[in-house]
Amino acid sequence: MKTIEIMANTPLFGGLSEDQLAQVGGIAQDKQYKRGEAVFWEGDPGIGFYVVVDGKVKVYKTSSEGKEQILHIYGPGHPIGEVPVFSGHRFPANAMALEKSRMLFFPRQDFVDLISLQPSLALNMLAVLSMRLRQFTLQVENLSLKEVPARLASYLIYLTREQENADVVTLPISKGQLASLLGTIPETLSRIFSKMTQQGLIAVKASEITLIDSEGIEDLSVGGRLGE
């Protein structure tokens, strides 16, 4: 796909005219990443941001002990590292390609110059940042206030909305990566999957999860507990 066609299908650039898209596309740089290759590291200068075209990228932080906490996993259409565009600060986390990925890179100063000329682009960016703030708020709530079973239930409900399927969802990441995203370890996550299966809430077949008792999963997501 051409750069302009790609941008037209992303929320950040939605609603822009062809001329505006052409202007934005004029500053975009096409970049390719291999699986496991770093896009940027925490502390790197925030010289621009990225939009995923193909593939999958994880945004994560690592503790001094080497423990990894995945913050987000983004696929096609999602921007990454956009906050430093406005703050001028360094990247606050790491980003790495989970699979072979193609991305568009937008240099910070060139993009800021365009925003000053295109108010509609600034409004789109504000909408994306507002959505990200909501996502972070929900993630903080899940990690700090909910037990792991409730976090998993919340994530499954999120997948039903994202994949537009009320009964069956497909995990877009490995269970090990999901454990990191939910702030737990793989062994604990496996036990919870087993308990939810035994109690008739879900059925698991590889990466495919069938939601058998949606009401029970909803109750669990808001603080309910799994029986022994």
What would your notes on this structure say?
There is one protein chain. By secondary structure, the chain is of the alpha+beta class. The protein folds into two domains: about 130 residues, Jelly Rolls, CATH 2.60.120.10; about 80 residues, Winged helix-like DNA-binding domain superfamily/Winged helix DNA-binding domain (Arc Repressor Mutant, subunit A, Orthogonal Bundle), CATH 1.10.10. The strands form three sheets. Strands 1-8-3-6 form a four-stranded antiparallel beta sheet. A four-stranded antiparallel beta sheet has the order 2-7-4-5. Strands 9-11-10 form a three-stranded antiparallel beta sheet. A hairpin with a 2-residue loop joins strand 10 and strand 11. Helix 6 crosses helix 9 and helix 7 crosses helix 8. It is elongated, with a radius of gyration of 19 Å.
